[in-house]
Amino acid sequence: MQAWRVHRNGEPSEVMRLEEVERPTPGEGQLLLRVRAANINFPDALLCRGQYQVRPPLPFTPGVEICGESEDGRRVIANPALPNGGFADYVVADAAAVLPAPDALDDAEAAALHIGYQTGWFGLHRRAHLLAGETLLVHAAAGGVGSAAVQLGKAAGARVIGVVGGADKARIARELGCDVVIDRGEDDIVAAVKEATGGRGANVVYDPVGGDAYAKSAKCVAFEGRIVIVGFASGTIPSPALNHALVKNYSIVGLHWGLYNQMDPVAIRACHEELTKLAAQGVIKPLISGRVAMKDAADAVQRVADGATTGRLVVIPEGDAR
């Protein structure tokens, strides 16, 4: 079968190589899945660079979430067992963690539902306890992680302010349902949030960016607001001034979704059931900006690494990509 492999760490476009390899063999409690679609996540770029919290042995195949087909014909979504990730024709995955793909979504959409939307749901509901009528500020609102949070925020009845970079991303953020869109290259984020909220600030901040985005969030978070730390796509990990959090009465909460797989797998399934219902109702639908052929996967991962994409890019191992 074909699989993209990384033999040394570096930029995805430089270190990913498409090779012929043996089909993986499932171990006890695992399933062999034919990959129907593999979503590209920012952690795939970090894996290539050797900067992710999980460091599989070299060589490995990146690709942390897929929509696949089991040997008995079921369409499922799964997190492949590294080092044999999803940018391949076949993967193995732990049977206990495999989830049914929602009927309302096609293969590419189903592949993009899992990590980003589960992260958004746990971040907004389990960690921030977002309430209807509150204001939610989402950084990188047109990206894969941010677009999921925008949709979930609107589904929860929140007023959503999206921060983006550029006119094209601003248009997409509005189409996703943002009530207010801020272009970080043109607008003063802090002033714009305060203006949009009558000076109160955002009740919940969803931050997958870190760096300057976090610093500005701390300046425009509301009294008893919650800043949810999801990731550091900017490459800069902020060092919060805890005296500032004390003075302004806001909370800084971390979210590592993968821990729920270990600590509370029942919650993962309950969340998936809720996401499946929302997808069936048409309330959420992953934004797929491109379906790319297997041969183009390395370039697509690099585009995600460079922040040059909107929504999700999804690798289609066979059939027409567009």
Which overall shape is indicated by the principal axes computed on the Cα atoms? globular
Please give the largest β-sheet. 7 strands, mixed
| Structural class designation | alpha/beta
On the 0-100 scale, what is the average pLDDT?
95
Count all strands and give the number. Answer: 15
Helix content: 25-40%
Low-confidence stretches: none
Strand content: 25-35%
How far the N terminus sits from the C terminus, by CA atoms, comes to 22 Å
Determine the oligomeric state from the structure.
single chain
User: Which H/E pattern describes the elements?
Assistant: EHEEHEEEEHHEHEHEHEHEHEHHEHE
Count of helical regions: 12
Give the C-alpha Rg: 19 Å
Description:
It is a single chain. The protein has 322 residues and is an alpha/beta fold. It has twelve helices and 15 strands. The protein has helices at residues 12-15, 42-49, 107-111, 114-127, 144-155, 167-176, 189-196, 212-220, 242-248, 258-263, 265-280, 297-305, and strands at 2-6, 16-20, 30-39, 65-70, 75-78, 90-94, 99-100, 135-139, 159-164, 180-183, 202-207, 221-229, 251-254, 288-293, 312-316. Strands 3, 4, 5, 6, 7, 14 and 15 form a seven-stranded mixed β-sheet that branches. Strands 10-9-8-11-12-13 form a six-stranded parallel β-sheet, sandwiched between helices. α2 crosses α12 (297-305), α4 (114-127) crosses α5 (144-155) and α4 (114-127) crosses α11. The longest helix has 16 residues, at 265-280. The chain is globular.
